[in-house]
Amino acid sequence: MEFTAPEIDWLLVSPLLAVFAAALVGILVEAFTPRALRRPVQAGIAGTGLLAALVLTVVVALELPSQGGGAAHGEVTVTGAVVVDGPAVFLWGLLALVAVGGLALFTERRVDAGLPVFAGQASVPPGADLGSGPGIGTGGAGETPGDGGAPASYDRWEHTEVYPLLTFAVAGMMLFAAAGDLLTMFVALEILSLPLYLLCGLGRRRRLLSQEAAMKYFLLGAFSSGFFVYGAALLYGYSGTLSLAGIAAAVGAGGGPTVLLLAGVALVMVALLFKVGAVPFHAWTPDVYQGAPTPVTAFMAAATKIAAFGAVLRFLYVAVGDARWDWAPLVWVVAILTMLGGVVLAVGQSDIKRLLAYSSIAHTGFLLTGVLGLQGADELGVDQVSSLQAVLFYLATYGVATVGIFAVTTLVRDAGGEASGVDRWSGLGRTSPLVAGAFAVFLLSLAGIPLTSGFVAKWSVFASAAGAGAWPVVAVAITSSIVAVYFYVRHIVTMFFADPPADPPAVVVPSPATSVTIGVALLATVALGVVPGPLLELAGDAGSFLR
Amino acid sequence: MLTSLVVVPFVGALLVIAAGRLAPGAGSTARWVALGGSLVTLAVALGVLASYDLDGSGMQLTESSAWIEPLGVHWALGVDGLALVLVLLTAVLVPVVLVAEWRTGEPGDGIPAPGDPDGTDHRDRRATFGAWVLLLEAAALAVFLATDVFLFYVVFEATLIPAYFLIGGFGGTERGRAATKFLVYQLAGGLVMLMSVVGLYVVATQQGPASYLVSDLAALDLGVVEGRWLFLGFFVAFAVKAPLFPVHTWLADTTQTATTGTSVLLICVLDKIGTYAMIRFCLGLFPEASTWATPVVVTLALISIVYGALIAIGQDDLLRLVGLTSLSHFGFIVLGIFVLTDQGHTGAILYMVNHGLATAALFLVAGFAVRRAGTASISAMGGMEKAAPVLAGLFLVAGMATLGLPGLAPFVSEFLVTLAAFDYAWWVGAIAVTGIVWAAIYVLWAYQRSMTGPPRPVPGVEGESLDHAGAGGDPRVIGDLTTREVGVLVPLVVALVGFGFFPSLLTDVIEPTTTQVLEQVASALPAAEGGN
User: Fold this and answer.
1) Does A466 contact B199 at a Cβ distance shorter than 8 Å?
2) B229-243 pLDDT, tens per residue?
3) pTM, 2 dp
4) Residue environment code for B429-457, b if the CB has 16+ CB neighbours within 10 A, otherwise e
5) Cβ contact (<8 Å) for A500 and B161?
6) Distance from A419 to chain B by nearest Cα, in Å?
7) Is A8 within the bounds of a domain?
8) Which of A97, A484, B122, B329 has CA atoms 20 to 30 A from the CA of A355?
9) What are the φ and ψ backbone dihedral angles of A507, each rounded to 5 degrees?
10) Which domain holds residue A307?
């Protein structure tokens, strides 16, 4: 058999390559650079890679050829493994942006007395002299630097691998959103997941929670990957191909054992729904969100959701779009369960990161509501918001607000790290109106109050689902929103109208990188609420998926 | 011109914040800036009145430009008779409230601040108060002017944020809970409406390019079932806002804890949005559904009238009492709207204005009384008319206006609505009329218990009583109204008397709109009946 080299349009995949390159260079640098230089060099490489990806994404977006009579733009490349189309490019840009924000939070050292957020080594056991002595983040026998705890000594043990881990995860996410066949999708899923599992376990504070989070996330994640492979195998059995377009063709042609199709779709969806944190596959979310170091939570909560919804949309719309009457009931039920489960469980939370975790589950439900809005181009009215447009817009606003809100939670600190208890935030509006104000704006956006980006996002997913006739789901979404408003507003009350605790937590001034991230996220949240038109149009111009 | 009516108070609010930041203790400047901003707004509103053509019909002074093009959303403003009277009411009440609450936010004003339950806080929050009031005014004016449903929804919700911070930041001890209850209630209502707003979009895109302009939506060809569902979403939100039985329970908690100035803005301005929007959107967009719903709505309105009055009678807290009287009054307004006659509509719109003036006066004078007595409990007051005759006199005038004494403005509107109710069905009229009797009881009985009778003993001082005219300035001794406080009430009383004798000043503005709305409803009916 003769081996033919695949034809690759290097320009189209250049954003992906930029991020992969940054990750690989990062690993080399880790091995060959002196410790003192590692942090700035690593952050620089990661930043350069992500910004290059952002720029290249824009270049690619302008270059995309029009296909299918203008309904879609893009090109299938790498022998069908990667589909660079409008939605993929939109998601790439979004992922790169969110990752830059996450990276900025990763570099934060000022909030905790000049110490990094991450443990010196992943193997540091819990309780290894945390917070006070020189052994911080070092752990292992004989490694305790004996120089009395000057911050300089910790630099020696900073875990700079987090930067390549971050870029690897981003690369996996970008590939995930652009995968043209199930095998690529699976590889991308693993590329994005493995670094995240590791990052979750690297919290320098609260080691036990952090390691527990990593363990849970890894075990459940590995389990769900198994489902994906099984589902992909069944779909191969049904259609004889792993390519999404091929499966679509088989579904369109009919015939074949429907059982294989339905079981395959269900199993693949289990894995994807696990990644987006939908009920009943949500159990990992609160523990992981709470246990992971907050910068990781910020990055992961925003970026994983973006990438995974990219994959959900691509799989459902491209591969099995013609069988939507078969999968729609499944998504109806999951969406309803997810929204109700998320908001009901959020009401009782007393930890801010867990509260936001349950709120993110609810948002997954709202996004799934938007997914249900799938309609054929001929069924859509003039200029009607399509479901893809709505979900893409929602992902953008949600991603930005999520990075921002988790960034703010890192600023309010007790002696033992972040003051994540809800009651610790009492009266913050009085002592630090700026921090409390920013947090309140993000909460209002998540609650979907007009003049914040969250409102337009919610409106669009509801409108698209309603347009496709999913009225009952929209009704549940409205009900859930009402419950959600209650717990978001309650937190604002705590911040602004309650009395501060006797020993109020300190609000620290972060590094410029974090401040800028929060500022940009805040600005975007308000701006997208007041003038959502351009981004909505951009999401609309992305067109539909390329088959 | 209309845009400037929204922009002026908004910019005013920004200036107030800036003024408050200039220097420590600049709150005093800030409140002058706030008052100035509200007076400029009033001037612009009067300018609008001057350029409004009383004989013209439909929306006037309209402005429209695309805002969110993909969704068909416009920044579209316009004014008709209904909007005009409410704009003027708002523009008049805001400066009145600012002067009435002149000392609110001063250091040591005795209002418990967040984190300071005893009210011994010495932070200067005057700028904060003024800024939130002006923001509230900007949003409320935008609500009355909006002629685009999406824009209306946005500013409708936007009013809640300043209202929330006014209740939560400047209220009594239970303010946090009251603010939460208020906001959750209102947002829940708003979200139900969101469903209908989304629904209108879906229907609109099925029939042509998306547009949220009221004029475009009114022309939509709605099915009977769709129309009724969409109507329901809007109506629930407006019933919460108005408020109507059984979604009124936020009302009394809010008025009990908020400062009276805030209550005036909430009850006399914001709640009008509910009844205003019933006319503009429920009747304007869903005439068939509105007639379909009339029996239920009329029943709810009657329950509100009687139930509101009865529980008002039973209140011991003066501010709760005044709040609950409004439940009864809003019952009248909704009744007037949904009997769907010319008389009822004119009466209802007139009622909105008159209720705004009368209740504002009653709230403010009650607030002055409560501040003097140091308690809102009616049973703990008593004998105030001897110590503070001017206060008691104005309390009586405001109370008489509330109960509909002939010669004062609310009488005319109550009379019109009642007549219309009798035309609708005799028993509806008969039940509505009892509302007037109950009103006499709650007003006069409250007056009797709080103002007349033997003076209440001064707490903690043996043998001293409230009318002890201690010239030494004993803070526990009640003084009469100050010039500022009288000055606040005089314009309201003048308006109440003036419109009592010359209601045509208002009805001339209102009637063309009334006729138009009812024609629209009537024209929709035969088609719908044919469809059934």
Assistant:
1) yes
2) 999 999 999 999 888
3) 0.89
4) bebbeebbebbbebbeebbebbbeeebbe
5) no
6) 19
7) no
8) A97
9) -105, 115
10) 14-141+152-541
